[in-house]
User: Which sequence fits this backbone?
C-alpha cells in the first residue's frame, strides 16, 4: 500500500513538472515566396503561444498564417506556455523558393498590395524590376489620387516634397516604348505606365498608376473595341464586367502588371481627401520590394 502511495506521489510530482509538448506541422515541399501558409498547432496542454518565423516576424495566434517574402531556409520556432508559466519549444525548418511569377510587394500606410509584373511586357518589366532593385520608389508618394479612377505615383520629386507642392513632372530622364497587348486591360487593380502626350505613346520611365475604376457595361467595351480597332478576349470582358475598370484607357497606356492581393487597399487610398491638384492632404508613401 505504501508503495502505491509512493508511486502516485512520484507521478503527481512528475506531472507537476511537465512542460507543454510544443509541436506543429509545416509543409515538407519547397514553398514559393509570397504564398500564404497555415501553421497547424499540435501542441498539448498549453495556454498561449509565441511563434518566431525566422524572418523578423512573430505571432501569438494559435495556428497563424504567414508568408515568406524571400527565398531561403527559415527556422520556425514555437514557444508554448501553460497556465503555470512553464514553456516548451519546437523548431522546424521551412524551405522557400523564388516564385514562378514576377511579384512585387507594394507597402503603404493603408496596407500592402501584392502585384504581378507581366512577362508579356518585357521592356516595362525589366525597367520596373530595375527601379525596385535600386530602391527608387522607396518613400515616394502616391501624388495623384482620383476616386473612381486611379492612384498614381513614381515621381522622384515627391520624396520629402513639402505640403502643397505640385507633383507629377519628375522622372528618370528617359521613356519606354509602348507595349500594348490585347489581353492586358485596365481592369481594377491593373498597373499601367503613366506618360505625357506623345505620338508614340511612350511610357514614363518611373511613373505608374493603379486602376480603381468604375462599373463597366458591355456597350462600353464594344465602343472601345470600335474606337481602338481591337478585340477583347472573352475572359477580359468577364473581368471588366465583374471588377470594373477604365476601358477608355486601353491601347492608350501600357498595362504591365496587376494587383493580385490588396484590391481593398486601392479603395482606401482612393478615398483619401485631396487638394485641387488631386494630391492627398496627408502623404500616402510607398515602399516596393521584389519577391525573389
Assistant:
Amino acid at each position: 500500500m505504501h508503495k502505491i502511495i509512493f508511486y502516485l506521489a512520484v507521478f503527481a510530482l512528475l506531472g507537476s513538472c511537465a512542460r507543454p509538448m510544443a509541436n506543429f506541422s509545416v509543409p515538407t515541399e519547397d514553398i514559393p515566396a509570397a504564398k500564404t501558409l497555415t501553421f497547424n498547432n499540435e501542441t498539448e496542454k498549453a495556454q498561449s503561444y509565441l511563434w518566431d518565423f525566422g524572418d523578423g516576424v512573430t505571432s501569438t495566434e494559435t495556428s497563424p498564417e504567414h508568408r515568406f517574402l524571400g527565398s531561403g531556409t527559415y527556422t520556425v520556432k514555437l514557444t508554448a506556455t501553460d497556465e503555470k508559466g512553464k514553456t516548451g519549444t519546437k523548431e522546424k525548418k521551412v524551405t522557400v523558393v523564388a516564385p514562378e511569377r514576377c511579384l512585387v510587394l507594394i507597402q503603404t500606410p493603408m496596407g500592402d498590395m501584392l502585384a504581378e509584373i507581366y512577362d508579356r511586357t518585357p521592356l516595362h518589366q525589366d525597367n520596373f524590376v530595375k527601379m525596385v532593385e535600386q530602391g527608387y520608389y522607396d518613400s515616394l508618394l502616391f501624388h495623384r489620387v482620383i476616386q473612381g479612377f486611379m492612384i498614381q505615383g513614381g515621381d522622384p520629386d515627391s520624396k520629402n516634397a513639402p505640403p502643397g507642392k505640385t507633383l507629377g513632372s519628375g522622372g528618370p530622364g528617359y521613356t519606354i516604348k509602348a507595349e500594348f497587348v490585347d489581353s492586358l486591360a485596365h481592369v481594377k487593380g491593373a498597373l499601367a505606365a503613366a506618360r505625357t502626350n506623345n505620338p508614340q505613346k511612350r511610357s514614363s520611365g518611373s511613373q505608374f498608376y493603379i486602376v480603381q475604376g468604375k462599373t463597366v457595361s458591355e456597350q462600353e467595351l464594344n465602343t472601345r473595341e470600335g474606337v481602338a480597332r481591337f478585340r477583347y478576349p472573352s475572359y477580359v470582358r468577364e473581368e471588366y464586367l465583374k471588377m470594373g475598370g477604365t476601358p477608355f484607357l486601353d491601347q492608350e497606356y501600357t498595362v504591365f502588371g496587376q494587383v493580385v492581393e490588396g484590391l481593398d487597399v486601392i479603395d482606401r487610398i482612393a478615398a483619401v481627401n485631396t487638394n485641387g491638384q488631386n494630391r492627398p492632404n496627408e502623404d500616402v508613401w510607398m515602399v516596393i520590394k521584389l519577391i525573389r
Remarks:
- The chain has two domains: 19-97, 103-291.
- Residues 103-291 form a domain with the Cyclophilin fold (CATH 2.40.100.10).
- The two ends are 67 Å apart (CA to CA).
- Residues 47 and 85 are 9 Å apart (CA to CA).
